[in-house]
Amino acid sequence: LPERLISAMFLPERLISAKFLPERLISAKFLPESIISALFVPASSFGIRHVQAILLFGCLTVAYTLRVNLSVAIVSMTDRNGSNPNFEEYDWNTQTRSTILSSFFWGYVVMQVPAGMLGQRFGPKLFLMGAMAVCSIFNMLTPLAAKWGGWGLVCACRIIQGLSQAFVFPSTHNILPMWSTPEERGRFATWVYAGSQFGTILAMPICGALAQSAAGWPSVFYLFGGLGLLWCVAWFFLAADSPASHKWISQEEKLYIEASLAKITTSDKVRQDKRHIRRDKGGQEAHYTW
């Protein structure tokens, strides 16, 4: 242990021994959080935990480009007087276009709760990667679906995309607390979840420019689908469910994160007395009016 900690007599004599390694001190919860935070501060201000935050930001950015790109591309897909007549156009009325655009959320709503439960039980990394891979592939298949199966097959692709993207937010919720200390969690969450707005802002002008370019509206789906697959590759090699399972994290940073989270048990289920919940008037009002 550091000499300053021993000399300041923060620890009782029975703990000042070589056999008490930092991991044992953390797991046994001998140290208060203030001392833990001071003990294991990484030498570098940028670490693997910041890489995870950047990857999650990229995930939400790409996820929202995949979500909204059809909203712009469908204008060129159904515009008889379009500026790019070299690509096929479809005679879909307003009701058909509305059905296509809403079909994404049919699958999205269905899988929200199961996605959160599965991600928490089996680990969010692979579920998040699989969700983005499926969504990206079916996004790239959308031009072929429109050509071969019409608007019905496009709806099927969008439903599958919605089912897969239902895993994105629950998996992000599960993995983010494992990589952020209590002091950094607010900043990390702000950066990561800003990706959804950034993806929407990014997609709109790019989709419009691509639809009017020589590549035509199909390039909208190929570009963002390809970006999604590239993100999956980066996520596979650089991400992990927790610091303990990451290959390249330094021992210093690993101890810093684990020490900060020592008193937070995310896997334990908190038992609530349902009788008290039923008697709580405010809880009932929130439940029935949300």
From TrEMBL:
<dbReference type="InterPro" id="IPR011701">
    <property type="entry name" value="MFS"/>
</dbReference>
<protein>
    <submittedName>
        <fullName>(California timema) hypothetical protein</fullName>
    </submittedName>
</protein>
<keyword id="KW-0813">Transport</keyword>
<dbReference type="GO" id="GO:0016020">
    <property type="term" value="C:membrane"/>
</dbReference>
<keyword id="KW-0472">Membrane</keyword>
<dbReference type="GO" id="GO:0006820">
    <property type="term" value="P:monoatomic anion transport"/>
</dbReference>
<comment type="similarity">
    <text>Belongs to the major facilitator superfamily. Sodium/anion cotransporter family.</text>
</comment>
<feature type="domain" description="Major facilitator superfamily (MFS) profile">
    <location>
        <begin position="51"/>
        <end position="290"/>
    </location>
</feature>
<keyword id="KW-0406">Ion transport</keyword>
<feature type="transmembrane region" description="Helical">
    <location>
        <begin position="126"/>
        <end position="145"/>
    </location>
</feature>
<keyword id="KW-0812">Transmembrane</keyword>
<feature type="transmembrane region" description="Helical">
    <location>
        <begin position="54"/>
        <end position="78"/>
    </location>
</feature>
<dbReference type="GO" id="GO:0022857">
    <property type="term" value="F:transmembrane transporter activity"/>
</dbReference>
<feature type="transmembrane region" description="Helical">
    <location>
        <begin position="190"/>
        <end position="214"/>
    </location>
</feature>
<keyword id="KW-0739">Sodium transport</keyword>
<dbReference type="InterPro" id="IPR036259">
    <property type="entry name" value="MFS_trans_sf"/>
</dbReference>
<feature type="transmembrane region" description="Helical">
    <location>
        <begin position="220"/>
        <end position="240"/>
    </location>
</feature>
<feature type="transmembrane region" description="Helical">
    <location>
        <begin position="98"/>
        <end position="119"/>
    </location>
</feature>
<keyword id="KW-0915">Sodium</keyword>
<dbReference type="InterPro" id="IPR050382">
    <property type="entry name" value="MFS_Na/Anion_cotransporter"/>
</dbReference>
<dbReference type="GO" id="GO:0006814">
    <property type="term" value="P:sodium ion transport"/>
</dbReference>
<dbReference type="InterPro" id="IPR020846">
    <property type="entry name" value="MFS_dom"/>
</dbReference>
<dbReference type="Pfam" id="PF07690">
    <property type="entry name" value="MFS_1"/>
</dbReference>
<keyword id="KW-1133">Transmembrane helix</keyword>
